[in-house]
Amino acid sequence: MDYFLTEEQTMIRDLCRQIAEEKIRPQSAELDEKEEFPWEIIKVLGQSDMFRIFIEEKYGGTGGGVFEFSIATEELSRACAGVAIGYAGTALGAYPIMMFGSEEQKKKYLPDIASGKRLAAFALTESAAGSDAAAIQVSAKKEGEHYIINGTKQWITNGGEAEIYVVFAVTNRSRGARGISAFIVEKGTKGFDFGKKEKKLGIRASATRELVFTDCKIPEENLLNREGMGFPIVMATLDKSRPGIAAQAVGIAQGALDLTVEYAKKREQFGNPITAFQGIQFMLADMATQIEAARALTYAVCREIDRGAKKISKDSAMAKLFASDMAMKVTIDCVQIFGGYGYMKDYPIEKYMRDAKITQIYEGTNQIQRSIIAAKLIKENAGKNKAG
Question: Active-site residue 363, yes or no?
């Protein structure tokens, strides 16, 4: 379908597709097997100005929006979602600074992110605080002109590789969710260390680590916005970033389908390529339709956000929910078409299925997305009835 991309958006798509095919795909299996963070590819993305596309021009970016970022993420994910999330996780870490940071904070951190010199990370999740973001236990206590952070974050994307972390901590436990604040913490700060690197089912080229804070002392100017704004920052950031996960899911599914069509044309059974069989044709047709529907929804939500729409929670959740469920179904069907070969690591298709699963989990499980969508629907319906 023609999504009426601008000249700049087309250039971003084509350049990322070229990087994906020339730099990522040849290394994808090895990076997955060795669980290596793809620093050489990240450097290529930096040199290609891909980190600039989601940063404002005044801070070294090119002023693109969620749509441009999602186009890039989709194309990179067609070759390897593990590599793509190293890129996308930096945008997730940069968004809170972009939306809520002071002018001084933006000038200090965003230019280095835009150039690809330093990666960023979003540190919210803990062992007992996943879907229930308000249940975090990491604390930040004010002492003079500093804050002292203690506790452990878990499953943080880009953990250990990023140098700029937006960390959410409790500053006033008696206020519940309203007592959470956000802080910028730099790698190398005394009292800030890294725990184990997780071994994962998929996106194995991505670094996922614990962050450990032991009397970590940071200056009060590292507080993002003001005390008690942590939870609104979380919600606003995820509303803006979830279409990126949808784009990742679309890219995974499209990459899997591309490989499957190519395989099905060559694979013969009963004297014919398996594409001659109606059962296979119907599966391919359904997959292509589901991918295009998810892409259309994702692009529409991205454009809505970039136009400045305020009430985006429901639509953002819908895009993430629909695209990630689609990616899981499509990749399972792709493995089925590959048959026994699909179950073997000699063929790349099983990796797509493993990578797809995380899109249903991170940045809010799909059960949480359904709760968000339902809550917004019920609230909107109540407002209409009251108005009537």
Answer: yes
